[in-house]
Amino acid sequence: MSLRQMEYFVAVVQEASFTRAAEALHVTQPALSHQIKALEKSVGGALLERMARGVRLTPMGRAFLPHAELAVRSAAQARRAARATAGAEGGELHIATLHSLAVGVLPDVFARWRTARPRVLLRLHEYATAEALEEAVQRGTADLAFGPEPADPPGTAVPVGEEELVLVVPFDDRLAGRTTVTLPELAGRAWIRCAMEPVVHGARFLDWACGRAGFTPLTAVWTEHTSTAVRMAAAGVGVCVAPAHIVRGAVGEDCTVLSPDPAWKRPLAVYARVPPTGAAEAFVDLLRTTWAALGDLPQRPYEDCRPPAAPVR
Q1: Pick from 267, 265, 264, 266: which is nearest to 159 by CA?
Q2: Contact, 108 vs 289, CB < 8 A?
Q3: Global pTM?
Q4: Rounded CA gap, 140 and 77, in Å?
């Protein structure tokens, strides 16, 4: 089997049609069909079921697909890495991250990057959870991932800094004017919860943290995005937990930001399956410089409120 055959196979699956796949690949349909048949012959069975309208995977095809996708993505990464190493002046760089970091941190980084290297195209892949982000890197979706430091990095991991999780309440809240609060003080409050909430010890972070403080959080609203939860909290719907950087970007001065006592922190890193070079290495340096320039994150250790062996994810 060849890489081209796997590229053709993945295209047919993505388009759910030989005709559309051929158009996307700029090849004739007979040529595409010939390559797929040759691939099926080499693996020893049918990968696709031809139907009157479109195609669908056979059981063998479902087993083969993730490996073919990884091979195709890895080949694309290899081409990008080679071009980047040659000069970091062209091509493209794929960055994967969490939605909260994409909203709260990367706009400034991307703006600086575009000023310094306008000919390098950036492609951003956003994920809701650290687990989904790590899985995407394992699949070869991106050249670099920026997020919570993995317990078991897939290759190279470069520490960037620490992210603090803070509590958000309205500017006229009874706690306004304070800078810190203990969780037991919030035992009777309603909470805005988010599908992107970190996970620790197999439980959603707020459930775990409040449980340690002796109460179960009263959930008022569930949201899909952290930025929405922050807006809801600023409007007085309830208290929410959010990364400090996204609160600044989402609501500015419309709310009160409280640091839990003890503080909640998690280390951040840039990681990849191979050591970053060329444009990728330059992006890592820029990200670390930008993060260091923030300079306003509290420095209390997160370990004050959770075992070091169980990082918030």
Answers
A1: 267
A2: no
A3: 0.66
A4: 7
Rounded CA separation 122/133 (Å): 17
pLDDT tens column, 91-129:
788 899 998 889 888 998 999 998 988 888 888 999 988
**3-state class (DSSP) for residue 204:** strand
**What is the SS3 assignment for 89?**
coil
DSSP string, 123-184: EEEEESSHHHHHHHHHTT--SEEEEEPPSS-SSEEEEEEEEEEEEEEETTSTTTT-SEE-GG
- Tokens standing for residue 295: 């300079």
For 35, phi and psi rounded to 5 degrees? -70, -40
Residue entry with tokens 């890495």 = 81
Q: Which of 44, 39, 47 is nearest to 63 (CA)?
A: 47
Going by their DSSP bridges, the two strands 92-98 and 55-57 should be labelled as: unpaired
d(CA 291, CA 163): 10
Exposure of 242 by Cβ count < 10 A (0-12 exposed, 13-18 middle, 19+ buried)? buried
Q: Which two tokens stand for residue 123?
A: 């492609």
- Do 266 and 302 meet the contact criterion of CB atoms below 8 Å apart? yes
Identity (one letter) of the amino acid at 238? G
For residue 221, with 0-12 CB atoms within 10 Å meaning exposed, 13-18 middle and 19 or more buried, which class applies? middle
